[in-house]
Amino acid sequence: MSSEWPLWEVFIRGQHGLNHRHVGSLHAPDAEMAIHNARDVYTRRNEGVSIWVVRSTDITASTPSEKGPLFDPANSKVYRHPTFFDVPDEVGHM
Amino acid sequence: MSVTPTPSGDGTVLFEFLQRMGDNALILGHRLSEWCGHAPALEEDIALANTALDLIGQTQLWLGLAGEVEGKGRTADNLAYLRDATEFRNVLLVERPNGDFGKTLMRQFLFDAWHLVILQALRSAADKRIADIAEKAAKEVAYHLDRSRDLIVRLGDGTAESHRRMQEALDELWPYTGELFIGDTGDAELAAAGIIPAPESLKGAWDDVVGETLAEATLKKPADGYMHKGGKRGVHTEHMGFILAEMQFLQRAYPCATW
Questions:
Q1: ipTM, 2 decimals?
Q2: Residue B51 needs a FRET pair 20 to 30 A away by CA distance; which of A40, B29, B31, B222 works?
Q3: How many Cβ contacts (< 8 angstroms) between chains A and B?
Q4: Which domains are assigned to chain B?
Q5: Which residues 3-42 in chain B show a CB within 8 A of chain A?
Q6: Phi–psi pair at B91, nearest 5 degrees
Q7: What pLDDT, in 10s, does the model give residues B163-205?
Q8: CATH says A7-80 is which class?
Q9: Do B41 and A27 touch (CB under 8 A)?
């Protein structure tokens, strides 16, 4: 058994009802202590109203070397942006 | 100069009580701050520093009110930095040396359990200024207790070595817990006026929390034998002078310095 505590990724929901956002990582022996540690390390300046933690090893990431095939094809598809609609005057500011 | 609590209407006993609350928070906060940069893990380091800062914040409120009640123009800073050891009113428990991390946590847990019980009672104090401070502090201390309680259970019921260290810490610190529950005539006067709970009345709730936690931590609760006391009336252990020497150095060496 490793004597190192496992790594956890920390997600905080800010004051204003936004989504949980990744804020960083920390070490903790289990989920409960990871929440405690996240509270102490990442919400000291009143940053949050909710905390998620997840074991770093439980995150599956895309492979950087596949960046081209994964993302480049989206570059040239301007028609996917909703900028081609005429907004009727009655709608007002959107 | 030492203030003896007298049953009088001049605020002396209230001043005494407020110093006790403020000095407990101040000295324990200072002790915790000694860990800054030395804790066994970065996360614990920050957590201890947070607790220390909470306590120093509470000190400002208690000693600020103490100065106001005394009515001689002394501020929280004056009281914290310019009193000598015999004028401090903290219990001996909080001036115990940090020892290893386990001992620091045990001291914290034994204190937190008492701290939360008294603050919860003070929320309905007849003096609104006291009730307001207790309301704010109780939230902070509820978290302190969550955390120290959790770590006591984990380390008590952990490895053979962590268990041994926690039991040693408990056995060493237990004789310093009795002082929290011993009242004097000033306490009785304030309790009768509905301003504070009688110190003795807090023992039951404290015993419940501590007993339950120690059982879960597989630690053996020591018997209530001889109890050290004196801090509440200004008779401190040899450690107090060293704490003040470090804490008050700046104000003593450069009087009235600000930054």
A1: 0.76
A2: B222
A3: 28
A4: 12-253 (1.20.1260.10)
A5: 41-42
A6: -70, 155
A7: 999 999 999 999 999 999 999 999 999 999 999 999 999 999 9
A8: alpha beta
A9: yes
